[in-house]
Every structure is written in C-alpha cells, then in structure tokens.
Amino acid sequence: MNGVSVGVEVSKPEEMGVKEDWLSILKGLEREEIAEILSQTFCDRCQANLHARVQSVADRKLPKKLSISSPDSTLSNNIHEKSAESYTESIQESSSKSESNKSLQNINSRIQKRYADKFSPASVNSKHLTASTQSKSGRSLINGINGFSSMEDDLQSDEQKEMARFSNVGRKTNFSHLERVYGKNVNVLQGLELHTQVFSIEEQKKIVESVYEFQRLGQKGRLRERTYTEPTKWMRGKGRITIQFGCCYNYAVDKNGNPPGIIREEEVDPLPPIFKQMIKRMVRWHILPPSCIPNSCIVNIYEQGDCIPPHIDHHDFLRPFCTTSFLTECNILFGSSLKIAGPGEFSGPVSIPLPVGSVLVLNGNGADVAKHCVPAVPAKRISITFRKMDESKIPYGYVPDPELHGVRPLSLKGQSQQKHIEVKEASPIPPTRVVSKSSGSSFSGGENDFPPLGASLQRGPKKYAYKA
Predict the structure, then answer these.
(1) Which one of 228, 338, 340, 466 has the fewest beta carbons within 10 angstroms of its own beta carbon?
(2) Domain of life here (predicted)?
(3) Looking at the domain assignment, is residue 237 inside a domain?
(4) Helix 104-116 to helix 31-38 angle, to the nearest 10 degrees?
C-alpha cells in the first residue's frame, strides 16, 4: 500500500497543479465574471457541492453583517446609492451589460491580458472607457481591486484595520517661510499641512477611474451644464478640464455678468458617493476638522503642460480647505508674490512636492496671505479640491447631504502607547527664484519630515488672519 491508508483519496501532483492554477485564476476574477461562471449549467452533484460551500461561506459572514462596523468601514461600500441621477443611471446601464454565454476559456484569456497590462496614467483613455472600467468605479475603495481579502485581514475588525491605516499616515505641519508683509516678517506658510499615504494605490485607481467616468458623462451631456467644463486648448497651460459638484463657482466675470464666486442661481450635480466617502475619511483621520466638513468640490483634469495660475481661493469658501493629488506627483508654488515666467511657467520662493495619494490642507496664512499655483505638469494629473461653502453663499437650490452630517474624528482612546512628537518650526527659507522645472527651494519628504499621523495630533488654534 506504500504507506497510504485505505479509503484516503490522494491527489496526484498534476491534479494539485491544475487545482492551484484554477484557484489563482478564480482569485483574479471580477465579481461580474464570477457571476457569469455561476450562471452556467452544472451537473446535480456539482450543484449540491457548490450550494453547500456557498451556504457555508454565507453562514460565516452572517455574524459580521450583524455586528456594528466603524463608520469609515463604509468607505465607498455605499457607492451604488443614488446621488446624481444622470451618472448613476449610466453606471447601472454599463454594469448590466454582460454576455451570459461566454466560455471559461475566453474569460481566462481576458483576465491574463488585463493583468499583463499594468495601470499607468498614459494608458487611461478618458474618452473611450470600457464597460469594465465604468463598473469598477462603483465599488468599495477599501476592499481592493478583486474584492478578496487575506485570512489575516478577515481576522481583523474594521476598527483595527482603520487604526492600522490611520497610524501609517504621514504628516508635515511645520512649513515656514518668512516674507515682509505690511512691514512685518510673516510666516506665509503658517497653516499648511501635508498628509501623505491617505489613499492607497488601489483606492487611487478607483478614484481616478471614477473621475474619468464623470468626464465621459460630461462629454456626452449627461451632467448638468455648469458641472462639466472642457475649454479649447488654445495655448500651453490653457484648457484644463474641470468638473464641479455641490456648487457652481465662477472664475471670472461670465457672459451673463456674474462676478467671480459662487453663482447661487446655478445648479450643478451633487457630490458623488465616492467623493463623500473621501470626505468622511479625511474628517475621521483628523485631516479636516468636523467643524468644516466640505460640501462642494472641484475636479481638475490635467494633460501634460496644463497648469493653475497664481491665486488665493475665493472667500465664498471657508477655511480650511484641501486638495488631493492623483496620477502624477507635481510641485505647488507658494509666496506672497508669484511671477509668470512663461506659458504655464511661474516663479516663487517656495516649492512643495505633492505626492500621489496625499492631501494638502490650506489654512491661515497659507490660504489667505500666500498665493499658490501649479506650474505646467509633466504628465497626466488629477486633483480634487474639497471646500465648504460660506452659509451666506450657498446656492438657492442646494439641499444639505444628511450623509455628511455628524461625521466625527476617529477616537484615539487607548492609543497612549503612541509616541508624541513635538513639532518644531523649521528655519526660515531664504527667498530664491523657483521655476516649475527647477527643484530649487523645495521641501522634500525626508524620513523625519512625515512622522506617523497617529503619533501626535496637537493642533494650534485656527488662524484666519496672518500670523507674524
């Protein structure tokens, strides 16, 4: 018997190899593709086995569903809930298109091709999105690309997972640069905060896919008129695409004579669910205060060479506000006086790199004394700026979103073992000319520049006037 007990079935090596190969393929499938497989006809024995295994998994998950999860665990789990009717209908329409008669061989070949093509900004064609890409944007940011999690993740509670992610966020708050303002030496960067690793690589992919989906809908006229703007590119640095949610902001006097600021008579689409989940994340992770939860945002879609000229954000929006960065790292310039050096090129005393997945918070002097600008970007880039409207400027037809009411920061009780790091103000940086293509006088993210956010959450009082 070669040492093998009677009645014990032993898989042959080649059978085990085939099984492992199919398991790896199964883990790489999308939900729609798994549903497609399950819709095929099985023999009675296979149906019984499959039913038993599905029931077993469902029984294990039932206690988890009955338990109360942390608020941040809902990050985009509610992506499919109704927001702007125009784009949700499109998502439902695109996700419902699937062929039920494809063979496993065709599915396998499609998966292998998809995973052979790595995601890159240049590979995203915003005008020709596939149905697969359109349906992905409606999924959870937190569950990963394929919806599978490891056994270790399953054993962790949602709160433990969130705390682990939260503790890995880096932050820098000691930005400093002195300039003479009204006869006084002023730190014009006071109030700036840079938070890194806020959104994971998988979450960034889903956010980017959603933005390009909104662009596609805007190009087809499926968004409200003032939501989507795609100007003609008539010169370098001119013509970046913008998508506004929550309110219509006018950059300059328009054809109807409306001055710069929020146009209260105009309506745009409301905040999409995925952006609301991003807002919740930033409030819960102590990046934005609960007293200033954003209710509007503007998406900027950059092509290579696009820029944002020097400006100070309009005071129709409260402070602080923030901007998130995706696809490509770029620099943002700050200074009380920024100069135009050429088409899409600017010069100023301070340049700060914005890593992908990061959040830059603007408050105090950094928002109201220093101007800021983004020189011509080296490659495709997306930024999303979240702001809270002044109560006296809210559009007449605006309806507050109950989902964003009462969002509270993550409780740090029981985190006393974390080391508190006292932030010391950096030495003043001598003013030097910084053109967008030069590294110049820039802040770099050294090892000690971004201690874990959970290590210290001491904040100074909110400042809205400049601080000498």
Answers:
(1) 340
(2) Eukaryota
(3) yes
(4) 170
Q: Residue 164 falls within a domain, yes or no?
A: yes
Q: Does residue 14 lie within any of the structural domains?
A: no
Name every residue whose Cβ is closer than 8 Å to that of residue 196 and which is 6 or more positions away in sequence.
Answer: 169, 170, 171, 355, 357, 358, 445, 450
Containing structural domain, residue 320 = 160-405+420-455
Which amino acid, 341? A
* Beta-bridge mates of residue 321: 362
Distance CA 40, CA 33 (A): 11
DSSP-derived secondary structure for 390-406:
PGGGS-TT----GGGTT
Average pLDDT over residues 176-186: 96
Pull the structure tokens for residue 373.
Answer: 């600008």
For the chain, the first-to-last Cα distance in angstroms comes to 88
Predicted model pTM: 0.63
- Structural domain count of the chain: 1
Q: Are strands 241-245 and 350-354 parallel, antiparallel or unpaired?
A: unpaired
Q: Is residue 173 part of a domain?
A: yes
Q: Where do the DSSP E strands lie in 134-222?
A: 170-172, 178-181, 184-187, 193-196
292: domain CATH number is 2.60.120.590
